[in-house]
Amino acid sequence: MNKLAIITGASRGLGKNSALALADKGIDVIFTYHNNVQAAQDVIEEIKQKGQKAFALQFDTRDFDAIPEFVSQVKGLLSNEFARSDFDYLLNNAGTGLRASVEETTYEELENMLAIHVKGPFFLTQALLPHIKDGGHILNISSGLVRFSMPGSSAYAMAKGAVEVMTRYMAKEFANRQIRVNTLAPGAIATDFGGGNVRDNQQVNQMVASVTALGRVGEADDIGKAVAMLLSEDSGWITGQRIEASGGMFL
């Protein structure tokens, strides 16, 4: 039986590359998308071309009331498409950024960051936990901005800081089932995240490369490979840890 991963937010960006990297390792994927049906279908086709099974479910991690229905859909897929009642890996990846100073950030904007990055993953993991296989792995996505500070990123970074604390508590509390829980913190990545600023703004791109030990900005593929590595059995003795994949940014 193939391993099976559930990924939130995999129709684009880091989630998509993570899904493809896992498929390269022989892992089947159930993933969520926010509203772009065609993008989700394109990812499904790419995964199928790699010889793996893939299914996409529409889901907004901020919609807490939708979690029971989402879990019901997952259970249906597990039973009908995979002939099993559990899955191996959960990647809490879905999210978006916010560019605003502390002075400019509104209550609603901060609440949105917390809902997307903290409350959503917390309650989704809680609901899916009975269906995660003993000895499985949960990987939560944080950010290099928790370690270093860039003006204009306070609300986003605060939420990601909470993700890292959440990870440690999950690792401790789920250890009785041998479920490992870790944080992966990407640095600046050249994707469409944040309007594609790192990817498309040459000045920003050069600045990031200049403060990165390996001399370039990160690519989505760099993170996808890191996800596949951390969700492999070779990382079985790693739990409760923050692993930064930034190429050595701001060392």
Number of domains: 1
Approximate strand percentage: 15-25%
What fraction, in percent, of the residue positions are helical? 40-55%
Q: Low-confidence runs (pLDDT<50, min 5 residues)?
A: none
Query: Biggest sheet, open or closed, and with what strands and sense?
Result: 7 strands, parallel
| CATH C-level name | Alpha Beta
The helix/strand series, from N terminus to C terminus, equals EHEHEHEHEHEHHHE
Q: What is the CATH superfamily? A: NAD(P)-binding Rossmann-like Domain
Q: Span between N and C termini? A: 42 Å
Structural class: alpha/beta
Count of DSSP-assigned helices: 8
Summarize it.
By secondary structure, this protein is of the alpha/beta class.
Q: Mind sketching the topology for me?
A:
Elements: E1 4-7, H1 13-24, E2 28-33, H2 37-49, E3 54-58, H3 67-82, E4 87-92, H4 107-128, E5 132-141, H5 154-173, E6 180-186, H6 197-200, H7 202-210, H8 220-230, E7 242-245
Parallel strand pairs: 1-2, 1-4, 2-3, 4-5, 5-6, 6-7
Helix pairs in contact: 1-8, 4-5
